[in-house]
Amino acid sequence: xxxxxxxxxxxxxxxxxxxxxxxxxxxxxxxxxxxxxxxxxxxxxxxxxxxxxxxxxxxxxxxxxxxxxxxxxxxxxxxxxxxxxxxxxxxxxxxxxxxxxxxxxxxxxxxxxxxxxxxxxxxxxxxxxxxxxxxxxxxxxxxxxxxxxxxxxxxxxxxxxxxxxxxxxxxxxxxxxxxxxxxxxxxxxxxxxxxxxxxxxxxxxxxxxxxxxxxxxxxxxxxxxxxxxxxxxxxxxxxxxxxxxxxxxxxxxxxxxxxxxxxxxxxxxxxxxxxxxxxxxxxxxxxxxxxxxxxxxxxxxxxxxxxxxxxxxxxxxxxxxxxxxxxxxxxxxxxxxxxxxxxxxxxxxxxxxxxxxxxxxxxxxxxxxxxxxxxxxxxxxxxxxxxxxx
Length: 390
What we know:
By secondary structure, this protein is an alpha+beta fold. It contains nine helices and 16 strands. The longest helix is centred in the N-terminal third of the chain and has 15 residues, at about 15-30. The radius of gyration is 40 Å and the shape is elongated. The termini are far apart.
């Protein structure tokens, strides 16, 4: 026998059925006449490749071939009647689809009930809501199960009927003549759109889709310590699928609004406090209003804090108040409240005040002070203040 079907497919003689199918799939994609337009011998190569696959994919024909017999003669070759005149029995394109894509050509009726899509909503929070947590009403425009038909898509009391075009199969087969013979292809039924059934009386509320659009309000619990960009996952709160199918998930993406007095830095809260020059020189105690003052669930004693400013404090000094910052989202405890002091030089002085300052300058030998250049750095006063005001 002149033909070596194993060589034609490019597989070993002990190749598995799966290896044979993969080899046929790869080569058929290259030599199919509809693909290899520039190859005049494509039709002959494809017929030869199909013959090899026909033999090696059939255990009986393969056994005949391995014993040195002719698998295409007699009963073994009933599926072919020679290649001189094409495929006498016709060529089923769905078999090629099965070999090339690993699926049957006939899909069968598809379900009207499908999974719904996920949904995303964005929610803005004030800083105290993000720091201490809040339960917030969130409006979601989404799809819900149709209240009239309960997802069936038909008017109450009506039932789907079998499609007369495809007899409930969901797809139809078309036969086309070609030089290869009859090529049969399957496609979704145009009458029932592949469902296999028809709804004779579609629901007037949802037009047969089984779901309607609406806006609903969810109470979303937002934990303490969240920040901009965090998404809260709510399973099964997204859009209901067609036919009243299972709902997708809802993602709530958070965005925290800037605050006029506080700035967040990780788990810390930062603020700048202006301090008179005399208070910085002599030392003082400053009463500060904390972020807790904006949270209605906070204890009254936590809404203010006393800050001890030591004498000789320089502008840009940062004092950390432990445990007065942001609760850690993962793990216990809170960050710090960092207070950066900005010492202010008086700009308006009367004669008496000016004389007192002049006397102080004489006493401190500062009447002709020398300027000392400070190096800007991330950890210095310039770095802290520029970072704050940016």
